[in-house]
Amino acid sequence: MFHIHFTYPAIFRQLFVLIIFCFFPLLLNAQTGQGSLRNDVLKEVAPQKELKPAKTPPKNPEKKTTFVYMEHTDFISVDEALMPGVQLFNGNVCFRHDNALMYCDSAYFYQNENSFDAFGNVRIIQADTIFVYGDVLYYNGNAKLARLRHNVRMENKRAVLTTDSLNYDRVLNLAYYYTGGKIKDELNTLTSVWGQYSPDTERALFRRDVHLVNPNFTMDADTLKYNTKTNIADIVGSTHILYQDETDIYSERGWYNTSNERSMLLDRSLIVHRDGKTLTGDTIFYDKQASVGEAFSRVELTDSVQKTTLTGNYLYYNELNEFGLATDSALLVDWSGEDHMHLHADSLRVFKDSVFNVSVGHYNVRVFRSDMQAICDSLVYSTRDSVINLFGEPVLWAESSQLSGEMVKAHTKNQKVEQVVINNSAIASQRADIDYFNQLSGKEIIAYVDSGALRRIFVNGNAETIYFPVDEADGLFVGMNKTQSSYVTMFLKNKKVEKILLTTVSNGNMYPLSQASGAGLYLRNFFWLEEQRPKDEKDVFTKFAKTERRKPDAASPQRGGEAILPE
Fold this sequence. Notes:
Blueprint lengths: L9 H22 L4 H9 L24 E4 L2 E4 L8 E11 L2 E11 L4 E12 L3 E11 L4 E11 L4 E10 L4 E4 L3 E4 L4 E4 L1 E5 L4 E11 L4 E10 L4 E4 L3 E5 L3 E5 L1 E5 L4 E12 L3 E11 L4 E12 L4 E11 L4 E5 L3 E4 L6 E4 L2 E7 L2 E14 L2 E11 L4 E5 L3 E4 L2 E4 L2 E7 L2 E16 L5 E14 L2 E15 L12 E14 L2 E7 L3 E6 L56
Antiparallel strand pairs: 1-3, 2-3, 3-4, 4-5, 5-6, 6-7, 7-8, 8-9, 8-10, 9-12, 10-11, 11-13, 12-13, 13-14, 14-15, 14-16, 15-18, 16-17, 17-19, 18-19, 19-20, 20-21, 21-22, 22-23, 22-24, 23-26, 24-25, 25-27, 26-27, 27-28, 28-29, 28-30, 29-32, 30-31, 31-33, 32-33, 33-34, 34-35, 35-36, 36-37, ...
């Protein structure tokens, strides 16, 4: 926020604010698509079902045992003395077991155990859909378990698995490795120390040092589930997704579609952009290709360059045009200076206007900063002119003064408010005592702030004042001074009125306090809303019902009835 101060003609600034205020809802509807990303992602896919690790060795007592048959070999030899119960096959060896054919250069066949050991150019073909290769195969026909070693490769329609040691359970149609392996499909390459792959479901489970390489990004995790058919990765542990020199994604749970780069990220996931922006939320729906994020519950969008944080229970963000929308407990915190500003509204929007940053708040706007507090219906701030524009019954407090009018502009410089301009029905009020208020009103009020303190208030046109001077000797009120003038300047010191200067052409009367009571204590447009003034950064969330702004109760005992001051 408050970083750059530009001076433009007043008419241009007012026109800019009018355009933003009137046409921004159309801009919002055109570009946000609020809620659509979440719906699209949820329709697209559901998380994969649990894929449990296979047992070693797997057991299947209900499955009927079938026999392994030797289909072909060039040579057969038997040596009962050296190798009892073993047949030695050499040359173009082929075994058949159910719907699988297994080939090798040579083999030891243990017919009684319904198993064999195969060596050299090992190949398994199952139902013409699964192909497994290796140097050595230890096959148990009773368990239908194939243990392949050295230069192992498994292929199906979409993926290729390579490893040095692979166990393949033909009953479950499940392959797993435990000494390091790699699965590669048309889009991604995944490596891990331990892995499991089901050719039927095309689902894989990886553990320990999981690394996914995509043309656009890399993914690192300790545990990961992956579907080679849908190219969707289920995040089931600490995971880091890296888009080189662009974006880092950190998540503990969720899923990521690697084909279109859409994701659902849960459990306080974090998205970090290299331009200094970070997005955190309990649930984040993120479309990297479209550069759009939609987050829910305890969401934070932080800009470390501009030093602002936008929060809410719903947040939409478009990275391309840097547009952000927050609702449901929306809060914008500007921490660019020593004095942080907290801005709350029913909805808050931040976006870029050319190179300038714009912030817009709509409905129930409440602002707290130690040197300034405000309430209004709508607010617009732009670094184009460093002016905070307040619309819709705005009220601004600075020290002990309350300022209001049809529109209030707070001019800032170097992260500090230096001037407040109030147009139409402008009034500045200050409590002098529990019963009395110093007041100035006119067409325009300009309040000057120095070092965080209100120093001077200038009233331009149709100026009226009610002022309660104090006797310096005893500190008691002298009476009530009421004036009308073209221009008035009030000077303040130590949060109190020091003196008031009027134009030479002015009317004024001093009334004793005995005659100062009732409605005559107040100017026509006076009201006092101290109870609605934000007290701290948490108080910006306090809600007040819309009521008519009235003068204090003139009939109360403190006011002394309805008496009107004499003319």
